[in-house]
Amino acid sequence: MATGTGLAPMKSFRHLVTTDPFLQHRLDRLFGEKFGLLAPEGEENWSLTTWAPACDIYETDHEIVLKVELPEVKKENVRVSFENNVLTIRGERKFEEEAKRENYHRIERSYGQFVRSFTLPTFADSSKIGAEFKDGILRVMIPKREEAKPKQVEVKVK
Fold first, then answer.
1. 112 forms bridges with which residues in the sheet?
2. Cα–Cα distance between 47 and 107 in angstroms, integer?
């Protein structure tokens, strides 16, 4: 079955091209195919395009933690920076040069450069941001300022 024939109404979404690679990736996963100008109708997208690694963000009493999936990305190809209250993670996953691209039957993983930026809340203590890279996961820890941490208030009975 050709792309779009089974879901003819969905063909109209092709005009919703985005410059946000993270949103593009989510649309691709949602509809099970490539959408937008990067993948012309009926054509497989074999290009090594921009990608956005998946990221989980959670908060504890003392810090905000970002966990970014970066499989097969070398530590030296990852940079974490902070400027104007925006945390930016950038890097690159390089295509394996020892295997010729012509020998591949399918390329579904994305390669190339990526950039993810996150605006931090005002209670984040940017002077103490830490990062560690282990087993393909980048973990960025952003401590909370002391005044933002939860405090216990003793209730007195009179």
1. 93
2. 9
Domains and CATH numbers, the chain: 1-45 (no CATH), 46-147 (2.60.40.790)
How far apart CA 99 and CA 58 sit, in angstroms, is 38
Asked if pLDDT for residue 2 goes beyond 50, the answer is no
Taking 80 as the threshold, does the pLDDT of residue 10 lie above it?
no
Q: Are strands 137-143 and 63-69 parallel, antiparallel or unpaired?
A: antiparallel
Name residue 124's beta-bridge partners: 144
CB 114 within 8 A of CB 50: yes
Average of pLDDT values for 126-131? Answer: 92
Q: Residue 71 in contact with residue 94, Cβ under 8 Å?
A: no
